[in-house]
Write a structure and sequence with these properties.
With 181 residues, the chain is of the alpha+beta class. It folds into two domains: 32 residues, no CATH class; 145 residues, Umud Fragment, subunit A. It has three helices and twelve strands, in the order ααββαββββββββββ. The strands form two sheets. Strands 1, 2, 3, 4, 9, 10, 11 and 12 form an eight-stranded antiparallel beta sheet that branches. A hairpin with a 5-residue loop joins strand 11 and strand 12. The radius of gyration is 22 Å and the shape is elongated.
């Protein structure tokens, strides 16, 4: 198409490169804003699953298509400082009853049994239990149950589903830990 309309080969080549660059930038922007996003893990609240310094990929498209599920690890902006993203695990969906008793969490009267959280919960937070997860929100916890600022604290509270940036799907750094989360 361009060959027939532009006689100068240099102009034609430059125009083809320009179009390719614009298409690459548009592809990158669509992927970044609607499909994937990169996040850096700070702090120890998600240990042992994620550690300080890990770099993870968030799936935005899958989150928008399939919505939240128990056990998903998600990123969302911290209510008191929206420039800071928190990464936590969903343990409660709207309507679920979350309780903290005898040093353990219960979801709808079933004790939450996680492979990574075996210690007794001593950090109760300032939220009242039992807690019914309000419509359109999620109850989230860090995997390091006694070292996490999460939905047990009113500063975080129940997270609006619309605030979730995406689901953590892949750890890309450090390389020895590369893989699905």
């Amino acid at each position: 198409m361009l060959k027939n309309k532009i006689a100068n080969p240099l102009v034609r080549t430059l125009l083809e490169w320009f179009i390719a660059a614009v298409l690459a930038i548009l592809f990158f922007l669509v992927m970044r804003n609607f499909v994937f996003r990169v996040a850096h893990v700070t702090g120890s609240s998600m240990q042992p699953t994620l550690a300080e310094g890990n770099i993870v990929i968030l799936n935005r498209a899958g989150w928008l298509l399939f919505g939240p599920r128990h056990g998903d690890i998600v990123a969302f902006p911290y209510r008191l400082d929206p420039s800071e993203n928190f990464i936590k695990r969903i343990i409660g969906l709207e309507g679920d009853v979350i309780d903290l008793r005898d040093g353990a969490f219960y979801v709808n009267d079933v004790r939450l049994e996680d492979d990574f959280a075996h210690e007794r919960i001593v950090q109760r937070g300032d939220e009242n239990f039992p807690f019914v997860v309000p419509p359109g929100t999620l109850f989230v916890l860090g995997d390091n149950r006694n070292g996490s600022k999460d939905s047990r604290f009113t500063a975080v509270g129940a997270v609006p589903v619309t605030d979730v940036v995406g689901r953590v799907v892949l750890r890309v750094w450090p390389m020895p830990s590369f893989g699905r989360v």
